[in-house]
Predict the structure.
Amino acid sequence: MLADVTIVMDRQLFQVHRCVLVAQSLYFCAMFEPGKGMHEEGSSTAGKKIVMKDVSAGVFRVLL
């Protein structure tokens, strides 16, 4: 799979393409914006797991 980020919710893994999330969602666009929480000290989120606690896995599956 060519996904570059894994999002973890409710112990479920979602392998996603960061560019698709950014293109379709202002929330993810802000999340992956350089200088924000997802880019620490210039390193990108590529290949990393992001744990999200505010949304259930079922809701996120529908969003995808």
Remarks:
- The longest strand covers residues 5-9.
- Residues 3 and 17 are 5 Å apart (CA to CA).
